[in-house]
Design goal:
about 190 residues; two-stranded antiparallel sheet; alpha+beta
Amino acid sequence: MSVVESWSRVMDLLRRHAPADHADLPGPATEETLAAAEGRMGITFPQDLRAWLLRNSLDPPEEEVDDDTACDGFAGFPDEGSFFLGIRTMERLYANRVVPDGFDPPDRPDNPFWRNEWIPFLSDQDGWTGKFIDARDGRVGGWFVGEITVTGEYASLAHYFDSVAEMLTRIADGSHPVCEVAEGRLVWS
């Protein structure tokens, strides 16, 4: 399944089972916005990331941006503690991670905490934990400050979105242990 098909499946499930949350999603990014972000970041977005952002750029409206948080995005989705990032927040978090040598720490090139080829797309508010797409091969990994970074957790962004769709299916049928839908919104316990 392609990233567009996987994301469409996620959006269909959200629209059917949490329509109030779905209605709050912002619209898509433009090619111009993506090109400008790539220029500022100095990296080319993988095709899957580009295709996803052209469907939904999850930056909150400017008036809702909280300057006291490192990251902001669409709160409460895909889970209670983290959220998908919009382009503006991706840039800000990427700028906080990028290092001159290309990876950090410099003495662990084969097992770094961070590589410049990793583009964050999901995070908590503090930027301490999240998921990234590897611009070299499109695989999805995860980081947690103070822990070993996990690379290749998912073969692609499409595979990751398939896991989100599976979670939404469990929420809809009442078999998810910590989330339910109330008044058209995902409610985490």
